[in-house]
Design a protein that fits this description.
344 residues
């Protein structure tokens, strides 16, 4: 089989960038806003968690071209973008936590952290900063798909499709009970099983230049994806299965696909207003940094800002803005070297 090598660079549109901003804020809200007195909103955002699956769908959509071309430079750049924050931030968090704890007695992680904690954090993402499970899964799947692309050449996408199908079936097997019995029920293992199908579908969408297909009939796509999202948010169409965060694999997959469809065809790319584009690019540039930092920063801010401590929506906005400001500052300090990957 010969797969097309699609050029996606020109397809990174304003709609996708806006979606990344929304997803980033959604993550912050999930982790910091308890929706006191707003049970319907809490149910929608906490149970219909399309935010991280959508990030993965987007990531692998644009990764297809790199592995289809075996573009070493692009692949290396991707791994630098993932590995630098994955290995660096947990160590920085460990140092800051220990220093502040010794000087002020404030424990962000409720204890003094050791290098052993750091080792298990890197290995399993369960030691002290579980939010990094997303990077753990993204890095693992990126390595796996890259290896398959280099080994199987023209048949790599078929192999990856089979893996996606296998993990979907595995989710409905007795695998979680087996892991529990063998004391191997680990966050990273379970989430790889649950998240792989949507990641594979993102890669498949990239292989057919999905945005280009959608743009041909964007008005119908907008209507149908909007109605689909409305149904997914308001009706319990799928039953949960065993596992951890994403027990409804079909729900998160359809949610991610329809969010991608809706925002990718928004008629924004013909907007000639440079200030609008610049503003959107500014907000979307640091979505990775916001994800990496927001929970750590929240652990300190909640001690001084009541609305963050009490889980108010305004507190989520303040946390989002504050974290974004740190990322902008970090970008300036990094002087565009590899440390920029800590903030973008």
């Amino acid at each position: 089989m010969n797969y097309k090598k699609i050029n996606h660079e020109k397809q990174i549109n304003l709609g996708i960038q806006i979606l990344r901003i929304i997803l980033s804020f959604w993550v912050v809200v999930i982790h910091s806003y308890y929706f006191i007195g707003k049970k319907k909103i809490k149910k929608n955002l906490n149970e219909k968690m399309f935010h991280v699956p959508s990030f993965l769908f987007i990531s692998f959509y644009f990764f297809y071209n790199s592995i289809a071309k075996r573009d070493n430079n692009k692949i290396i750049q991707r791994f630098k973008r993932l590995c630098i924050p994955y290995f660096t931030w947990p160590f920085i968090f460990l140092v800051i936590n220990n220093i502040i704890n010794k000087i002020f007695g404030i424990k962000n992680f409720k204890r003094i952290l050791s290098l052993k904690d750091y080792f298990f954090q890197i290995l399993l993402c369960e030691s002290y900063y579980a939010s990094f499970w997303y990077l753990n899964v993204l890095l693992f799947l990126s390595i796996l798909f890259t290896i398959i692309a280099y080994i199987f050449k023209s048949d790599f996408l078929l192999i990856i499709k089979l893996i996606g199908f296998f993990t979907y079936i595995l989710h409905y097997s007795d695998i979680y009970n087996i892991l529990r019995k063998n004391h191997s029920f680990r966050l990273c293992i379970v989430l790889i099983i649950q998240i792989t199908p949507v990641s594979v579908i993102g890669l498949i969408a990239g292989s057919v230049n999905y945005i280009k297909i959608l743009e041909k009939n964007y008005f119908n796509v907008l209507i149908m994806s909007f109605l689909s999202l409305n149904c997914l948010f308001n009706f319990n169409i799928f039953q949960p299965h065993d596992g951890f965060l994403y027990q409804k694999v079909e729900l998160i997959t359809l949610g991610a696909i329809n969010l991608f469809k809706f925002f990718s065809v928004l008629p924004l790319n013909n907007n000639e207003n440079k200030n609008v584009k610049k503003f959107i690019n500014l907000l979307s540039h640091n979505t990775g940094g916001i994800y990496y930092l927001h929970n750590f920063i929240r652990g300190y801010l909640l001690r001084f800002i009541t609305i963050i401590r009490n889980g108010k929506f305004l507190g989520s906005i303040i946390l989002f803005i504050f974290t974004h400001f740190i990322c902008i500052l970090g970008n300036k300090i990094s002087m565009r070297n590899s440390l920029k990957y800590l903030f973008i």
